[in-house]
Design goal:
219 residues, alpha+beta, three-stranded mixed β-sheet, two-stranded antiparallel ribbon, 9 strands, 29% helix
């Protein structure tokens, strides 16, 4: 199970490394945000054929022995106060901080696990050509500390399938972090961006001068 240490990100330095030490095929890349944006291919996005069921998610998690699915493992990893875990990985108590809006949450059921790059957006920007197995790996990616994030249901549903040109977290002080994590996730999975998205990312690449994106290519 991933640990809280992997979730200790700052707005300036983004930890996107996987659990295991990087192999030559998964070498750690560390790139200033502005340069990272330039690495993203620009295409016309297409949502033809998308269904949420194309991405099998909340599967058995990274640790089959713990009885928890992906959602539950992320909740346990991101808790600021550890909850109790009952039979069937039932979670009670605990506390979380939703970084999108700065809210403290004390009930796991009030949290959504957000895909940093939403499933529909991933489909639009390259995942439509993937195998079902790779889409499942994407939807349950715990090899990066920022692919999945526990946030308030309200903020996640406000975001929906929108990219940063259309939505940013209501907490303005996390915008650089959010943009960096978005770009890092797209680089990790070899996803593209569209022209409108590019324009927004370039603005933040200039504004967030000290933000560095550290990422590894997904296996």
């Amino acid at each position: 199970m991933i640990t809280n240490l992997l979730r200790g990100l700052t707005a300036l330095t983004l930890a996107l490394a996987p659990l295991a030490a990087a192999t030559p095929a998964q070498a750690l890349e560390s790139v200033p945000l502005a340069d990272a944006v330039e690495l993203l291919p620009v295409v016309v996005e297409d949502r033809t054929g998308y269904t949420r069921s194309s991405f099998k998610h909340w599967t058995g998690g990274d640790d089959p022995a713990d009885g928890c699915n992906t959602r539950q493992e992320v909740l346990l990893a991101e808790a600021t106060v550890a909850p109790e875990v009952g039979p069937g990985c039932a979670i009670s108590g605990g506390s979380w901080t939703s970084y999108y809006d700065g809210q403290t949450v004390i009930q796991a059921g009030s949290l959504d696990i957000d895909h940093m790059v939403p499933l529909a957006e991933a489909w639009d920007s390259g995942a439509s050509t993937w195998t079902p197995a790779r889409r499942e790996a994407y939807a349950n990616d715990q090899g990066s500390a920022t692919s999945l994030v526990a946030v308030t249901a309200r903020s996640n549903r406000a975001k929906a399938d929108r990219d940063p040109a259309e939505w940013l977290p209501p907490a303005a002080d996390v915008h650089c972090r959010y943009i960096g994590e978005w770009v890092g996730t797209k680089l990790r999975w070899g996803l593209a961006i569209d022209e409108t998205e590019l324009a927004t990312l370039e603005v933040y690449g200039e504004t967030c001068e000290t933000t560095v994106v550290n990422y590894t290519a997904a296996p």
